[in-house]
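Students often ask why inverse folding is considered easier than folding. One informal answer: many sequences map to the same fold, so there is more than one right answer. In these notes we will look at a single instance of the problem. The structure comes first.
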């Protein structure tokens, strides 16, 4: 079973507990206007052209080859594990499933927007130790304006994940000024957190002022429609049903 990766991050510390390897699977159905990995959106390999040279984003791996590589790093990953991110990992469910089946005692996290086929999502979630559920904008229409897709299918998959109760999860939400930190969105997040039984935590991710750095290399224009340098804020009235934090 083959899959396409656009990067492998070794020694990452922001994608879960301990020292980790983050595997970035290529292809994503969303088009978030703040996305800092535009090279992860298209499914096929593409050449990035920088002023100082070129780089191919998109390398084909056999599931067995990737699992062997990750298993070989087990000693280094004792305190952490492997995080499968993207792009959107649910775009390559068969490949990811085959990799997970071959891992030997490594702690695993699935980092997903939740947009994908429900059965595949639940099957993959059941094979990992923890899920980072990438919530962005709850209102279906506004989600469409900012990410290219309504939030409805992600919210449906979230509900299914919670009802299954097999895998603990947290929310990961980018904290973007006047985009995701609006009163409507944060009050919606508070309400939602009170209806879920297996949600462990809410992590806010700070805005990335360098989000547009790779667009020109992909032959695209970065036009987010908001100030990526402005810091999103969490108001004092924000009291969800689970602990929350802002990651550095
Ligand atoms: S879900 Fe992630 S990879 Fe996909 S477009 Fe949004 S930010 Fe980019």
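Output (designed amino acids):
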């Amino acid at each position: 079973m083959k899959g396409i990766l656009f990067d492998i991050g070794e020694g990452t510390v922001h994608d879960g507990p301990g020292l980790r390897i983050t595997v970035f699977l290529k292809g994503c159905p969303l088009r978030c206007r703040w996305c800092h990995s535009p090279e992860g959106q298209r499914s096929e390999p593409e050449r990035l052209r920088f002023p100082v040279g070129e780089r191919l984003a998109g390398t084909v791996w056999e599931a067995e080859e990737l699992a062997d590589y990750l298993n070989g790093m087990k000693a280094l990953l004792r305190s952490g594990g492997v995080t499968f991110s993207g792009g959107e990992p649910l775009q390559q469910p068969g490949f990811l499933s085959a990799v997970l089946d071959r891992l030997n005692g490594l702690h695993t996290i699935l980092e997903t927007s939740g947009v994908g086929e429900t059965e595949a999502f639940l099957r993959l979630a059941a094979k990992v130790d923890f899920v980072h559920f990438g919530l962005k904008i709850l209102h279906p229409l506004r989600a469409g304006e900012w990410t290219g897709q309504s939030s409805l299918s992600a919210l449906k998959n979230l509900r299914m994940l919670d009802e299954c109760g097999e895998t603990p999860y947290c929310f990961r939400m980018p904290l973007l000024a006047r985009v995701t930190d609006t009163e409507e969105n944060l009050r919606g997040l508070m309400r939602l957190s009170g209806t879920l039984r297996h949600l462990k935590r809410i992590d806010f991710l700070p805005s990335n002022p360098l989000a547009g750095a790779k667009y020109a290399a992909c032959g695209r224009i970065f036009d987010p429609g908001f100030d990526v340098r402005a810091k999103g804020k969490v108001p004092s009235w924000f009291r969800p049903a689970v602990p929350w934090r802002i990651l550095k």
